[in-house]
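Z., the sequence and structure:
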Amino acid sequence: MKKFFAVAAMVLAVAAPTAALAHESAAKHGGVVRTAGDLSFELVNKNGKATIYVDDHGRDLPVDGMSGKLTVLNGKEKTEVPLEAGSGNMLVAKGDAKLASGAKVVAAITFPDKSTRTIRFAIK
């Protein structure tokens, strides 16, 4: 019986991290991808501009009517920048988000139906 529990514990230890990672999508734009609910959010820092791409099961999700706020924590420094709908599936930060290596980022996104999602990113 002890062998059964030992084997079951090993199987769960190996399978649990794999199952948790199975829902993360691959980065399409070179950013950091996180999943909230059934949607994937990719935070991209390009030329000092922060952009979040939104997709639903690999398909671009139009962001018309969405808005939000990006909160960036760089050590003791905190920066908040509004997010506005851009073209296609892009939410664009209006201002300098200061996405430095090691920063922690929280995106609070409001959908057209007034529901919200909070997504956490870590910049490498």
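Residues 15-22 have pLDDT under 50 and may be disordered. The chain is about 15% helix and 45% strand.

Let me know what you think.
H.
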